[in-house]
Specification:
Elements lengths: L2 H4 L4 H14 L5 H11 L6 H12 L5 H25 L3 E2 L2 E2 L1 H4 L2 H20 L4 H27 L4 H27 L3 H25 L14 H4 L5 H7 L4 H12 L5 H13 L2 H19 L7 H15 L3
Antiparallel strand pairs: 1-2
Helix pairs in contact: 4-5, 4-9, 4-16, 5-7, 5-9, 8-9, 9-10, 10-15, 10-16, 12-14, 12-15, 15-16
Length: 324
Amino acid sequence: MNIKDIAKPVENQLDEFDLFFKDLMRTKVPLLDLIVRYITKKRGKRIRPLLVFLSAQICGGTNERSNIAASMVELLHTATLVHDDVVDESSERRGIASINSAWNNKIAVLFGDFLLSRGLLAAIDKDEFGFLKSLSVSVRRMSEGELLQIQKSKELHNDEETYFKIISDKTASLIATCCEIGAMSATDDVSKHKIMHDYGELIGLAFQIRDDIFDYQSKSLSIGKPVGNDLKEKKVTLPLIYSLNQVGASEAREIVKIVKSEKLKKKNINFIIDFVKNNGGIDYAENKAKELTTQATNLLNTFDDSDAKTSLINFANFVIERDL
């Protein structure tokens, strides 16, 4: 199962959304217009708009409000990527030069601010204050999650509860918002809003766990994320957290000491990866991700069978089976 197949129930809506989004992004400022054309010529898989439209479809059907909801999350997500590239000093995004690399940091930050403001205005212009509240909560949680992760990476101490708090805020919150405001665009039934929010939250957790597993697998090279990249950044994620709890205190301290090294060498990274594999860290993380996606799909049992429901179930499977 791939994203293209999953998107079939709403592929026409996604095509319409592309036109809606480009029109929304038009500006009379030449430099802004140039950057907008630059970033829209190579779009990603549109996973977040896809979730908005599928959530709307399962709750009654897509409409113009669904386009506004999808635009808001796409603008926010793109803005966070632009700002992240500045913070991380990244030179490339999706195979092309990042905004900060193609122009400079100041322009990148200001462009990210423009995207955020455009998203806010998209809601305000249409009195979509419910969308705005949901998205604002997500922005707050994403910021809190990032800051907590930075704090814990400096301390190099993490437990499973803290790990889930970080990924819930940092990653799952926006996916939950996609599903929630998609449902809000189609129905006033708050119980359906809650179901779709919780579905998105669970899927988001599984999505991030799968990403963290990539750090310990050679196939992560295929997604442009080097093996051991999280370890180099001192991020202690679920596979390592579990593995450290399976050994004695002295061995765990030795592993943590290696991770704390100022500059991890390749042999040290390979040693830690072998440690995680040998102590069941990857298997544990994979099983945890499967548990979360099972919980998510069970939530959909309250909805009648439909193509959108099938695609949301298939998306859950895609999350844990993907290699990209």
